[in-house]
Amino acid sequence: MSNTINTTTALEILMADAEKIYQLITKQQATLCLAQCPAFEEIVDTQMFGFSKQVMYATQIGVITEEAGHRILSDLEKALNNVYTALYDEVKGTNKGE
Whole-prediction pTM value? Predict the structure, then answer.
């Protein structure tokens, strides 16, 4: 049994983990828990920290390039920022209507 991993497999694993974090955020957005659960931000920070360590490890052992690692993290951070921005705009719009 081979214990080697190729770049394609490593990227697929990292992208699947990034998608799990993104889905966690978007599910909470649907219930507006992001605005009402301060502890949720801590969970997201913990998930992002762990994921960044996975990316760093994959880079260090040479299964992905440093550029690919930065791109994966940057893309996820942008997607999460878009979710937070949309929620903020939604809450802001709701508060104006009161």
Answer: 0.74
Residues in the chain: 98
All structural domains of the chain with their residue ranges: 65-97
Half-sphere exposure at residue 35, Cβ-oriented, CA atoms within 13 angstroms: 16
| Torsion 47-14-16-67 (CA) sign | positive
What is the DSSP code string of 72-93?
A: HHHHHHHHHHHHHHHHHHHHHH
* Cβ neighbours of residue 93 closer than 8 Å, sequence gap 6 or more: none
Distance (Å, whole) CA 80 – CA 92: 18
Q: How many CA atoms lie within 13 A of 63 on its CB side?
A: 18
Over the stretch 8-35, which tens digit does the pLDDT of each residue have? 888 899 999 999 988 887 777 666 565 5
Q: CA 83, CA 31: separation in Å to the nearest integer?
A: 13
